[in-house]
UniProtKB/TrEMBL annotation:
<dbReference type="InterPro" id="IPR009100">
    <property type="entry name" value="AcylCoA_DH/oxidase_NM_dom_sf"/>
</dbReference>
<feature type="compositionally biased region" description="Basic and acidic residues">
    <location>
        <begin position="1"/>
        <end position="11"/>
    </location>
</feature>
<feature type="domain" description="Acyl-CoA dehydrogenase/oxidase N-terminal">
    <location>
        <begin position="27"/>
        <end position="120"/>
    </location>
</feature>
<feature type="domain" description="Acyl-CoA oxidase/dehydrogenase middle">
    <location>
        <begin position="141"/>
        <end position="241"/>
    </location>
</feature>
<dbReference type="Pfam" id="PF02771">
    <property type="entry name" value="Acyl-CoA_dh_N"/>
</dbReference>
<feature type="region of interest" description="Disordered">
    <location>
        <begin position="1"/>
        <end position="23"/>
    </location>
</feature>
<dbReference type="InterPro" id="IPR009075">
    <property type="entry name" value="AcylCo_DH/oxidase_C"/>
</dbReference>
<dbReference type="InterPro" id="IPR006089">
    <property type="entry name" value="Acyl-CoA_DH_CS"/>
</dbReference>
<comment type="similarity">
    <text>Belongs to the acyl-CoA dehydrogenase family.</text>
</comment>
<keyword id="KW-0560">Oxidoreductase</keyword>
<dbReference type="InterPro" id="IPR006091">
    <property type="entry name" value="Acyl-CoA_Oxase/DH_mid-dom"/>
</dbReference>
<dbReference type="InterPro" id="IPR013786">
    <property type="entry name" value="AcylCoA_DH/ox_N"/>
</dbReference>
<dbReference type="Pfam" id="PF02770">
    <property type="entry name" value="Acyl-CoA_dh_M"/>
</dbReference>
<dbReference type="InterPro" id="IPR036250">
    <property type="entry name" value="AcylCo_DH-like_C"/>
</dbReference>
<keyword id="KW-0285">Flavoprotein</keyword>
<feature type="domain" description="Acyl-CoA dehydrogenase/oxidase C-terminal">
    <location>
        <begin position="264"/>
        <end position="412"/>
    </location>
</feature>
<dbReference type="GO" id="GO:0050660">
    <property type="term" value="F:flavin adenine dinucleotide binding"/>
</dbReference>
Length: 415
């Protein structure tokens, strides 16, 4: 008499169900945009990421062009300039879906959205906005330096005026996509602060226009060898007499269409930073969600002791905790994006959601590695990619420590 195989009565595997938008933020247009981005991430981005990430290779231009055809480089650009005329919410919505496949693809969207269009001439600005919306004006930002990262007021790169030209000299670090870009926005010091002025006084952004795949005269770039965040190269830039016309001195950074153009070069950065923090939170949620969905499948697939490991309570509960944390962080970034679109400054909320979502992504992807066991510590599974990429999200766009300082400084007197 044969012994019954317990596997014959095993329930059918449950496939991951990606989250849908819920009220109060669901609209049919947003749901359609989410579905479009989700399908693109699954069918187009994921196969490319699976092949190229382990090679530390750059994403192909064809992928960037495909996103441009969707209009996603102009999500936040007004319709009159060829953009989609949408808000921070939709920008982050698409970014979460793309980050679920490959973090760097969600990040390249930020190189559009009107970045590099804050020139003084209105006609030229309109032309650049239209090019940005079409994905034909994609840039890089060079803010940080070897000795100035979280403390941007400590930037030492100099801009010296010679007639109608500014001459830039200094070193910049962490300039992503700098070689492939159409331009680089460089934050430089035009003068030292006067007594009693803010340390940020005299800092201005400049537009360095260039041919994609090259660096302009007076600039050289050295590739920084990262452990993750592959898909585009990140550079340390040496500026030795880079010449920028006065017409390319910018009124602000980040290209945010809701920023006050008269706020001044450094002051206008703040709203852009808040949007960047919420964008980072959405990207972190996308990466963490990828880990949860992969674990859901793996716990049903992998067998030990004659059972799928998902039958063991400790592992089931770990997955439940992971899913709950991702869902919580998603609700928070959507709330904060809504506040920004509604005109609120949301500085504390942006810092909070960046802090909580990125720290969550590190925990969740680390737990996903553990649930995958030895298989997770190989390049055969995507989970190691999620783990490497999630770790960066707590560092760029302001470290977790900086976010804690922003929040606490608005709750207590500053020391």
């Amino acid at each position: 008499m044969s012994t019954p195989d317990h596997r014959e009565s095993r329930p059918e595997p449950i496939a991951p169900r990606p989250p849908e938008l819920v009220t109060p933020w669901r609209t049919e247009a947003r749901a359609a945009l989410q579905a479009e981005a989700r399908a693109f991430a699954r069918d187009v981005v994921m196969p490319i990421a699976d092949e190229l990430d382990r090679q530390k290779a750059e994403m192909p231009r064809s992928l960037i062009d495909a996103m441009a055809k969707k209009g996603w480089f102009g999500i936040t650009i007004p319709k009159e300039h060829g953009g989609l005329g949408l808000g921070v919410f939709e920008y982050c919505l698409v970014s979460e879906e793309l980050a679920r496949a490959w973090l760097s693809v969600a990040s390249i969207l930020a190189r559009g959205q009107g970045l590099g269009t804050q020139v003084l001439d209105d006609d030229r600005r309109a032309d650049l906005l239209a090019r940005s919306a079409r994905g034909e004006w994609i840039g890089s930002i060079a803010l940080s330096e070897p000795t100035a990262g979280s403390d941007l007021a400590g930037v030492q790169t100099r801009a010296v005026r010679e007639g109608d030209t500014w001459v830039l000299t200094g070193t910049k670090r962490w300039a992503g996509f700098a070689q492939g870009a159409d331009f680089i926005e460089v934050l430089a010091r035009t003068r030292d602060p006067e007594p009693g002025e803010s340390r940020s006084a005299g800092l201005e952004p400049f537009l360095v226009v260039k041919e994609p795949g090259t660096f302009p005269e007076g600039m050289t770039g050295t590739v920084i060898d990262k452990i993750g965040y592959h898909g585009f190269l990140t550079f340390e830039l040496a500026l030795d007499g880079v010449r920028v016309p006065e017409s390319d001195r910018l009124t602000g950074l980040y290209g945010d269409q809701g920023a006050d153009a008269d706020a001044g070069g450094f002051a206008s950065v703040q709203r852009g930073l808040n949007i960047a923090r919420v964008h980072t939170a959405a990207r972190a949620v996308g990466v963490a969600r990828a880990a949860v969905e992969d674990c859901q499948l793996y716990l049903q697939e992998r067998e030990q002791f004659g059972h799928p490991i998902g039958d063991f309570q400790a592992l089931r509960f770990a997955l439940a905790d992971m899913a709950a944390e991702v869902t919580q962080a998603r609700a928070f970034w959507q709330q904060t994006a809504h506040l920004l679109d509604d005109g609120a400054a949301a500085e504390s909320e942006s810092a909070m959601v960046k802090l909580l979502a990125t720290e969550m992504a590190v925990r969740v992807t680390n737990q996903a590695m553990q649930l995958h066991g030895g298989n997770g510590y190989t390049t055969e599974r995507r989970v190691e990619r999620y783990w490497r990429d999630a770790r960066l999200t707590t560092i760029f766009e302001g470290t977790s420590e900086i976010q804690r300082r922003i929040v606490s400084d608005r709750m207590l007197p500053r020391p």
